[in-house]
Amino acid sequence: MRKAIQKRMEAKKYVWEGAIPLQIHLHESQVTTLPPPPPALILAPRIGYLPLLVPLIKPHFSSTLPPGVDTIWFEYRGLPLKWYIPTGVLFDLLCAEPERPWNITVHFRGYPGNVLIPCDGEDSVKWSFINSLKEAAYIINGNCKNVMNMSQSDQLELWHSVMNGRVPVRLYVWSISEDFDDWEDLSQVDSWEKISYINRPIEIHKEGKCFTLHDAMKSLLPEFFSDESLSDSKLARVDFEDAQKIPSEDVSSNKVVEDQGQNAYEHREACCISSSAEIKLIRIQGIEPKLEIPFSWLVNNLLNPDHFLHICVCVKVPQ
């Protein structure tokens, strides 16, 4: 028992102390000196947010910036990065073949308000985080009173609720259509239109069997899975076009699909899903777990501080 607790604490320590090496370049249009400034090298917390790095980044580039008011934002290969998504999730989602350091670009002018919601620095990040925490608390407890006045006992109650009840999950589903032999050959995400952003709570209890990541994925993305309890003649085909009708922002569903078979898969293999699509990759906190791993372990060890389990999924869809 003591060894199990020690392992859990060690896993949590890795999550909370996990970091990504960043190499941050100032966009060439905002360089006013020669030679241009070297990139800033920063070790960014996985559970943190990019705007919180600004106090470290701005002094590095301040001497070369053009005059004007700062409207800071980040991009990766031309794609503006959504500041309210944890840094580790952005990395897992956008780098199918992880690159280290992660080369991203910072802008101090020309905020893309048509793509990103406004960010006024640390206060915006703080309130976004608190709102996520309220949302998670509402999913877990039916109200968010315990977040409104976060005493130590309230935090403990929220934690026990996560361990014993419904789990708030945020899915980032990246759809691809091309065939590839290696992740390095895969084209980069160039638009947020390719990412479905889905919130769905999930019940982790299941009588008589271990509730696995495979079970959870069937519950969270039932539109991609065939019901194994049915005969081939009764299988309902689900086209990805139908699945894409789900809004790309907040979605809530209580539907849980029961798994009638015991299946074990390697994480690089496709799941048993509808013939119209296949899941190629699942990544959580930089880890690519096997589908037979107990879902409770993921919940106990890989939650973000906002009490959501952030899951990045790459789905191959027919051309």
Automatic annotation (TrEMBL):
Q: Which residues form the Autophagy protein ATG5 UblB domain?
A: 166-313
Subunit structure comment from the entry: Conjugated with ATG12.
The family classification in the record reads: Belongs to the ATG5 family.
One annotated GO biological process: autophagy
Against InterPro entries, the record matches this protein to:
Atg5, Atg5_HR, ATG5_UblA, Atg5_UblA_dom_sf, ATG5_UblB
Quote the cellular component terms of the Gene Ontology held in the record.
cytoplasm
Q: Does the keyword Magnesium apply?
A: no
Q: Which UniProt keywords apply?
A: Autophagy, Cytoplasm, Isopeptide bond, Transport, Ubl conjugation
Query: Which superkingdom does the taxonomy of this entry point to?
Result: Eukaryota
Protein known as: Autophagy protein 5
Is S-adenosyl-L-methionine one of the keywords?
no
Summarizing the function annotation, the protein's role is:
Required for autophagy.
Residues covered by the Autophagy protein ATG5 UblA domain: 15-108
**Where's it found, cell-wise?**
Cytoplasm
Protein species of origin: Theobroma cacao (Cacao)
Principal location listed in the UniProt entry: cytoplasm
